[in-house]
Amino acid sequence: MKNISLTLLLLSFFGTLSFAQKKPDVFKTLDTELEKARVALKTPGFAVAIVQKDKIVYSKGFGYKDVENQVPVTENTLFAIGSSSKAFTSAILGVLRKEEKIDFDARPGKYIPELRFAEPWMNEQIIIKDLMAHRTGLPRHDFSWFMFPSESKSELIKRIEFQEPFTGLRQQWYYNNWMFFLQGEIGARLTGNSWEQNVKELFFDKLGMTRSNFRIPEMEKDADKSFGYSVELDGKTTKMDYYNIAAMGPAGAINSSVSEMSNWLITWINGGKFKGEQIIPEDYVKEAMSAQMVVAAGTPSKEHPDVQFSNYGYGWFLASYRGHYRVEHGGNIDGFSASASFFPTDSLGIMILTNQNGSPLPNVVRNMIADRMLNLEPADWLGETVKRLEEAKEAQAKAKAAADSTANASLTKPSHILMDYTGTYEHPGYGKMEIDLKNDTLFVQTGLLGGFLEHKDYDTFNMYLIYQGEPNKDNAFPFQFVSNMTGDISGLKAPLEPALDPIEFKRTPKENELSVDDLKKYEGAYLLMGVQEVKIYIKEEKLYAFVPGQPEYELVNIGEHEFNLKVLEGFKVKFEEKDGEIMAVSFIQPNGTFRGERKKIE
Questions:
Q1: Do residues 56 and 395 lie in contact, with contact meaning Cβ atoms separated by under 8 Å?
Q2: Could you tell me which residues come within 8 angstroms of residue 500 by beta carbon, excluding any fewer than 6 positions away?
Q3: Cα–chain-centroid distance for residue 238?
Q4: Which of 3, 91, 559, 584 is deepest in the core (most CB within 10 A)?
């Protein structure tokens, strides 16, 4: 990519720009058309702003920010902007490069010394630019932060070492929120300020973005904020809780309004300047909105031969929209969707924020407005989208009917009783999940989300997340439990990253706390195979086993008369009781079971 000359392209961005000022009549029917789109797409509410050169020429809210109380959206209503935050994160590094504090060709480990990737080549070859352009070879690993959120940046950095790549460096573009978390942390290390402080001081304060913020409590106390909603294909609308993105903030934590985000777009349209002040270095602006990685072929379709190529810069997607160079980034986070876009050679910017989860509206409205503002023959973007949604609705109904007609109870049984599947399951690149048995059902709890297991086949169960207070029965994660050499459940495999084989979590059985009095009944000497004497004793209120010639082993109770050897996986001890007395012990290990009678005290 470095050998591609961008000279002609970049000269065109910031040369003398000619943009015919739109007459007021271009907006005459826009309100009606946008409200029509909102209704057709079943969107609770949204706001839109249009900027030309250095001015907001149109801004308006549609629908409701609070559906239950029918409170209208305004151009100042705060929404979560999700991944539209990413351009702010990368721009921090652009400012720091201008100050000669960072080298984009340096390894990330130069600025975060404790950072390690899963493979040696990644540690040696990945550079800052690769983080900014989604080209590290790592897949998303999104469930690692979404299901197991953390406020600890150090903990998140440690997880990256255990997240496997799926391809080589710069071989394939693949979206990755983790690499934007790292950019935010690099900026913080270099300035001594948090990512939030950097964004506020470098951009918000200078652009008059006084109400834009980063945290749910700040969002909640603002009088003009929107709630988020999910909307099913049949139109059913449900209020959603705000999602706390925690330490992953640099990937998508900003809350803002279209009126304040307009100043951000004006800055990019004008080569990094706002009201005469150079906010973002001009050379960085040019580089960030130039192709750094090919996303996909982006070939023109039969329906839209003039929409083509699909590349990525730094925090921005790039495309040719009907002969016009478009820079854009969307955003999706629980209950909200967004689109920030601008056309640099046309001095046009379009900002759309909506309170609909996974909404198609931002792209539809963006294209409808672009056609008007660029004097293009309007395409039927709304009609095409409505048609696709109707087709999806029909396909969903057919799939549900097919699933219902073939649904049968499993003809097989798990290899263990349900209690044997309980415990703590951990993967160092993800986190811990707890599985407990309640009323004959296995329940799962991750760092954030809960769920329950439904038996599917043998040791495979379907895990259904309880998301936003409701079980998501339309999507199941198959959990395949695995056993060790002694037949005990030792872990589970779950397909949490589509680009890789299932992620394997290691099981630690639940430890039962026994009193010293409870432990005393196991104390004594046992003669294994009639030859080897083993001593069981209490030390510091814990039970230990000692075999001559070996270290002492702490025993951890996992069930009635059953203990694991704390430091040896696949080894356990089981005591035998008769007439209320412990009579024998069996050491169960991968190479066999060794039984010993308890020696009588004379």
A1: no
A2: 139, 164, 166
A3: 22
A4: 91
Residue ranges in 61-169 assigned as alpha helix (H): 86-98, 120-125, 128-132, 143-146, 153-160
pTM of the model: 0.86
Burial classification of residue 525, based on how many CB atoms lie within 10 Å of its CB (0-12 exposed, 13-18 middle, 19 or more buried):
middle
**What are the strands, taking DSSP E only, across 419-541?**
423-427, 431-438, 441-445, 450-457, 460-467, 470-471, 477-483, 489-494, 503-508, 524-528, 532-539
Tokens encoding 583: 């009579």
Give the per-residue SS3 of 66-97.
ECCCCEECCCCCEEECHHHHHHHHHHHHHHHH
Q: Which two tokens stand for residue 159?
A: 């997880």
Identify the burial level of 282 via C-beta atoms within 10 angstroms of its C-beta, where 0-12 means exposed, 13-18 middle and 19 or more buried: middle
How far, CA to CA in Å, does 170 sit from each of 164, 173, 468? 15, 7, 37
Look up tokens 């690499």; give the residue. 179
Structure tokens given for 43: 């969107």
- Spatial neighbors of 447 by CB under 8 A, at least 6 apart, are 147, 148, 149, 150, 431, 432
Tokens coding 404 = 């219902």
Angle, vertex CA 568, rays to CA 580 and CA 461, nearest 5: 85
Judge whether 63 and 38 are in contact, CB under 8 Å.
yes
